[in-house]
Amino acid sequence: MNAPTTPPTHGGASGPGGERNRFTPAGAPWTAEAEELPAPDGPGGLPVTGEGLAGASGAVRPRTPVQEHHSPLGDRWQPLAYRTHAREHERPAEEPPTSRPAPPLPPAPPRAPALPPAPAAPPAPPTLPGSGKAPSPGGSPSSDALLIRRTLAEIEPVADKVTSYFYALLFVRRPELRALFPAAMNIQRDRLFKALLTAARHADDTAILTAYLSQLGRGHRKYGTAPTHYPAVGECLIDALARHASRTWNDATQAAWVRVYTAISQIMIDAAAEAERSSPPWWQAEIVGHEPRTPDVAIVTVRPDQPYPFLAGQYASVETPWWPRVWRHYSFSCAPREDGLLSFHIKAVPAGWVSGALVHRARPGDVIRLGPPAGSMTVDHGSDSGLLCLGGGTGIAPIKALVEDVVRHGRSRPVEVFYGARHDDDLYDIDTMLRLQKSHRWLSVRPVISDGPTLGLSGQLPQVVRKYGPWNAYDAYLSGPPGMVRSGVDTLVGIGIPAHRIRHDSIDELMASAAG
Questions:
Q1: What residues does 344 pair with on adjacent strands?
Q2: What is the pLDDT of residue 8?
Q3: Does 223 lie in the same domain as 206?
Q4: Which of 139-148, 181-190, 316-325 has the lowest mean pLDDT?
Q5: Where is composition skewed (Gly residues) in this entry (predicted)?
Q6: Which stretches of 67-185 are DSSP H helices?
Q7: Is 104 within a domain?
C-alpha cells in the first residue's frame, strides 16, 4: 500500500518527541545515536516485506563491520540501471486499488535490466538484555498467547483495515522505507495477517514457532532487512492493533504484544545473523535455458553465481529485473546437480507479474535473483517407507525432484506418482516422467485427467488416488494448486495416512504463488 509521505507532526512513540521506545531493551536508555542509525541502501524490505510477520526489538547497533557481497558475475549488474528501471514502474504515493491490476508489459529491451550487487547483509546484533524468549510448549496456552489470540479474533473481520492502517503509519513515520516495498500491496497485506495468525496459532509450541520465524528471518535478508528497521515496525503494528481492537485492548494486552513481539524479532534476527555467516542474502542466477512446453508453461534453467545449497522438494523465492521487489515462490524441478544448475517449471497466470515475465519475456542471458531455499517437503532417506506423490499441473516439478533424489541415494523403495492435469495436452512433462519409470522398476507413474477424454485415468486427482492403495504404509507428498492440496490432504487423512506423514508446502505460500 502506498501511504502519505508527509512526516508526522509528533515525535512518534519513541525518541525526543515521545515516550520511551516500547522496544528499547530493558535497562537500556534511549539515545539519539541508537535511533538515528541509517537504514541500508538498495532494494529490500522490512521485517514484514514479502513474507509476512516480523518482530520488534531494541534499537540495536551493529557490532561487526559490514561485509560486501560481490557476485562472480561482476559488473553486469549496475545499480544505476536497475534503479532507473525501477523508478519507471513506481506508482505515486496513494492508495492502490484493492484488486491487483494486470501489469502492463513495456516493450522488451534486448536484454533484461541489470541487477545490482547484493547489499551488505545485516550484522549479527548483540543479545537484548531482558528480551523475552520463545513461548514455552505445554498443555494450556500462556496468558500472553491467550491475550494475543483474543486480539486477533477481534480484528480478523477487519484485517484489511488493520494492515492498511499499519502500512500507512509506517510510511508516514518512515517515508524513506516505502521504496523498499512492491508497488502493489494487496498481497502484502494478506501475508501480514496470515503470518500473525500463524505465529499466534503456534505461540505455545516453541519448536514450530522457532522454525517458522527462523525461516522468515533468513528469507528477509534478501530485502535488505536490518535490525534498525524492527522498532518502527513494532511501534506501528502495536498502534494499528490498539486502534482496531478496542474491545480487547488494554494495558495487559499491549504488554503481552510487546513481550511476544520482542521475542519474535529476536528469533528472526538471530536466524538472519546465523545465515549471514554461511550464505549471501540472495543469489544472482543467469538464465541458461528457456524451454516453452505449452503456450503458458516454460521450463527455466539457471546458473547461480555461486553454489546454491538446497534439498529436493524445496522452493526458492524469485525476483525478476522487470518488476523489482516483487517475489514469487517456485519449486525446484530437479535434485541437486553436479553442474550446479537449477530448473523451475513456470506457469504464466493471468495478470502474473513474475510468472508472465519468466514465461513470455525471459531469455537465455537474462539474470534473475533467488532467495534462500525453503520448505520441508523433503525425503526422509532414513526410512524405508514408500512415497505416494500427487502432482497437479506444474506441481509435478518438485515431485520429479523427489524421484531424482531417490535415484541419487541408490535405495529401491516404492514410489507411486499420480500426475494430474485438466487435459492430455496439459501433461507437459509426462514424457520425462515415463522415461524415469522405464529406468526404475520401483517407480510407477499414472497420469490423471479431470476434464475431457483420455486414454488414462479420469477424475479429480485425490479421488482417483483413493481407488488405489492401501497407502497407510506410505509417506505422502502433495504439490499443486491450493484447492488440490487441501482436498488431497483431507482425502489422505480419510483413508488412514497419519497427518504427520503428509507433506506439502504452506497453503498460504501456494496461494501467494498462484497470484503470479
A1: 300, 332
A2: 35
A3: yes
A4: 181-190
A5: 42-55
A6: 79-88, 143-155, 159-173
A7: no
Residue range(s) defining the domain that contains residue 498: 386-514
Given a contact cutoff of 8 angstroms between Cβ atoms, the answer to whether 302 and 316 are in contact is: no
Q: Is residue 81 part of a domain?
A: no
**CB 390, CB 465: distance < 8 Å:** yes
Between these two residues, 437 and 209, which has the higher pLDDT value? 437
How far apart are the C-alpha atoms of 29 and 173, rounded to whole Å?
A: 21
**How far apart, in whole angstroms, are the C-alpha atoms of residue 415 and residue 404?**
11
Place of cell 492493533: 241
| Residue 422 included in any domain | yes
Tens-place pLDDT, residues 289-300: 999 999 999 999
Same domain, 477 and 426: yes
Contact 158, 14 (CB under 8 A): no
pLDDT for 443: 98
Contacts of 508 (CB under 8 A, 6+ apart): 191, 194, 198
Whose CA is closest to 216, among 171, 162, 255, 270?
270
DSSP secondary structure code for residue 90 in this structure? P
Per-residue pLDDT tens over the stretch 454-469: 778 999 999 999 999 8
Number of domains comprising the chain: 3
Measure the CA–CA gap between 459 and 450, rounded to whole angstroms. 5
Amino acid 188: pLDDT: 63
Reported pTM: 0.69
Say whether both 227 and 366 belong to one domain: no
β-bridge partners, 449: 421, 458
Q: Give the torsion through C-alpha atoms of 71, 72, 76, 80, to 10 deg.
A: 20
Kindly report, residue by residue over 350-406, the tens digit of the pLDDT.
989 999 999 999 999 999 999 999 998 999 999 989 999 999 999 999 999 999 999
